[in-house]
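Pinned message: reference record for Phosphatidylinositol 4-kinase type 2
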Amino acid sequence: MAEPSEPGQQAAAGGGSPEEEEDEDEEREPLLPRIAWAQLRKVAPGSAVRLIEPAEEAGAASPPKAPDGKLLLPLGSATCSPSRNRAPFQSSPSHRSGFACSVSGITSEMNTFLDDPEFADIILRAEQAIECGVFPERIFQGSSGSYFVKDPKRKSIGVFKPKSEEPYGQLNPKWTKYVHKVFCPCCFGRGCLLPNQGYLSEAGAYLVDEKLHLGIVPKTRVVWLVSETFNYSAIDRAKSRGKKYALEKVPKVGRKFHRIGLPPKIGSFQLFVEGYKEAEYWLRKFEADPLPENVRKQFQSQFERLVVLDYIIRNTDRGNDNWLIKYEKQKEVDSKETKWTDDKESLIKIAAIDNGLAFPFKHPDEWRAYPFHWAWLPQAKVPFSEEIRNLVLPCISDMNFVQDLCEDLYELFKTDKGFDKATFESQMSVMRGQILNLTQALRDEKSPVQLVQMPCVIVERSQSGGQGRIIHLSNAFTQTVHCRKPFFSSW
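Predicted structure (tokens):
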């Protein structure tokens, strides 16, 4: 009885000699894309080389295991198999194994997060899930193509928003924006925003949240992913099928292709938050059943952090349906324990999601004002607390901190192919104006509703100087009040 072959290789048929097996291996290697073999030699620190056992050999050989007996590729369930959703043609086990490895190799080479190994591990799990047939699921809400990304155990771990499927992208799967573009082109899009830059806005909002230590935006980074469930053009899908067929039937031609499968998509990947519900749901609950005093203070603190974030990035799409609240009702305990609840163990938390329509290059001054819907809540009438002033004011009142923030955003935004430095500087001029207003409002102990009623300001960089590390507002920037208001104004 012949022994089972090594993972990724077929057993010798008919008891061939070792020399014949080596010849067959040498002929089989060029069939895989070059990047797949390069990935086996060069991987990101902390990652493992993933070996996929063909389904046909499941009975003859066990899945590849690490020296400690653990699977190199987690298997979430019996349905998590590379043979699922296979190509239309019947390929050999080595071809399917090589193709799955090549897809992982392409995206793993693009997704390098050496400064954040925890996030890199999450992306690795997402890639592994796609390899074994657990594909991202499209979210039907919203006006763009966004997807719940799962791990091999089919647990949601993130939300991926491809650039090409944004509200005004060419591959947006939602027909509402297409109808809007065809039948009402004069009102199509938002004149103050750059089109198809939402994925950078999502990542930029997290960057601002992290710099100010607000802690309300789930971790968001720019990643590359590829999946059959993404919305691709018919041409891309036809190319993918043709290349797979060429690799199977004409190996000498197929091995010359740089990529075999569908092209990876760039987009924002935001970690999935559990236990949260839309703010609209909890706000109605709070009206009928008021919060305890200690929880009310926690909610007010979280709400003020949301106000600070939205105002700085000038979010043009903040309704009560796209920020989340997690509220864990406190169990019946002694009054002393209730009174001395530690703020670090908050009973209520806010998650600011859907930040893709922010960072405008000018203040809204055409048709709509795009107001902040939280400005009509009763919490917006309460002056900013001392806690938020102590947290934010020392940072935003320092122009060197603001300049560092602009430089960090520059490093993020310049990765886009359509990046324009002049337009980016206009975006930063609006943001600096928002920061200037927020600084004044915090010093004067104003409320959020008074903040949004302040005149719009633009702080532009002076052409003469201000290139050094020490920035002085008087000689490096010029302040301009934006007087033009949109046709439909809310305040």
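Pinned by admin. Summary line: The chain is about 40% helix and 10% strand.
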